[in-house]
Each structure stands twice: as C-alpha cells, then as structure tokens.
C-alpha cells in the first residue's frame, strides 16, 4: 500500500543524500575507505536521481516517480548490506548501523511512497479571467 505523499518523500531525498555524504564524519567512519566511498557515492547518487525525478523537488523532471521508487529500493538494499558486502561491519556499530538504518528506511520509502507527485510547494496565485 502506497500512502506516503511525494511532498514528504522529496525533501527527505536531499536531506538523506547530504547525511550520506557527510556520514563518514558524522558517524566517525571516515578512516575506512570502503565505508566512506559507499556512503559518499550513494549520497551523490541519491541527490542526482532526485534532481531528475518528476516530483515536487525534481529540477529536470525526466524520470517517473515509479523509477525513483525502484532505485530507492535497490540502493537501500545495497546500502543495508554494504557493511558485510564490502567488509567493514566488524569495525564497530558506527560502521554498520547507519548503513542498515538508512538502507532499510530507503527500502520502506521506496515501497510506500505514491507513484505520482502533484503537490506544489509554491503558493499559486489565482489567475484572473
């Protein structure tokens, strides 16, 4: 069941993208190259595909929301398993927990966000006939 409106999903994309990019320093795993690379690359990727999504905060509105949601699911799953896939899970909780929490949240949002946008953040002025 898809119940999350895109008007809530859209700002989260940019916030989470920024958190992923800054994550190595926020969560103190910047001394691990794999963890840092995964976090930064997926953060940049999230912001990039958000910019081209056809929703409220998309700039170029090329990709349909259904594609965005699918990428969220795949990228979230990759993010959640990346500590074990790339071998940094044994370095401590701060090395795997942010990846799992953000990854599971991304999968959840991808599965539950509506497939169509439609909300406008700007106030529209009534047109005069």
Describe the structure.
The protein is an all-alpha fold and 129 residues long. It has one domain. Helix content is 63%, strand content 0%. It has four helices and no strands. The chain has helices spanning 6-26, 33-51, 65-85, 93-112.
Give the topology, please.
Layout: H1 6-26, H2 33-51, H3 65-85, H4 93-112
Radius of gyration: 16 Å
Content of β-strand: under 5%
Are there runs of 5+ residues with pLDDT below 50, and where?
none
In helices, the fraction of residues equals 55-70%
**Tally the helices: what do you get?**
4
Give the overall shape, derived from the CA principal axes.
Answer: elongated
The domain count comes to 1
CA-to-CA gap between the ends?
Answer: 41 Å
Largest sheet: none
Q: Provide the residue-averaged pLDDT.
A: 94
Number of DSSP-assigned strands: 0
Give the topology string: H per helix, E per strand.
Answer: HHHH
Task: Quickly give the structural class.
Answer: mainly alpha
Main traits of this protein?
single chain; 129 residues; mainly alpha
Short overview:
The chain has 129 residues and is mainly α.
């Amino acid at each position: 069941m898809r119940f999350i409106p895109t008007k809530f999903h859209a700002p989260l994309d940019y916030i989470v993208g920024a958190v992923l990019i800054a994550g190595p320093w926020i969560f103190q795993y910047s001394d691990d190259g794999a963890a840092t690379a995964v976090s930064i690359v997926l953060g940049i990727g999230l912001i990039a595909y958000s910019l081209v999504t056809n929703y409220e905060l998309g700039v170029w509105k090329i990709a349909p929301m259904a594609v965005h949601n699918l990428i969220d699911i795949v990228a979230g799953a990759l993010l959640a398993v990346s500590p074990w896939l790339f071998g940094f899970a044994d370095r401590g909780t701060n090395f795997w927990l942010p990846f799992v929490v953000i990854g599971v949240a991304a999968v959840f949002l991808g599965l539950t966000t509506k497939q169509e946008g439609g909300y406008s953040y700007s106030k529209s002025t009534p047109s005069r006939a």
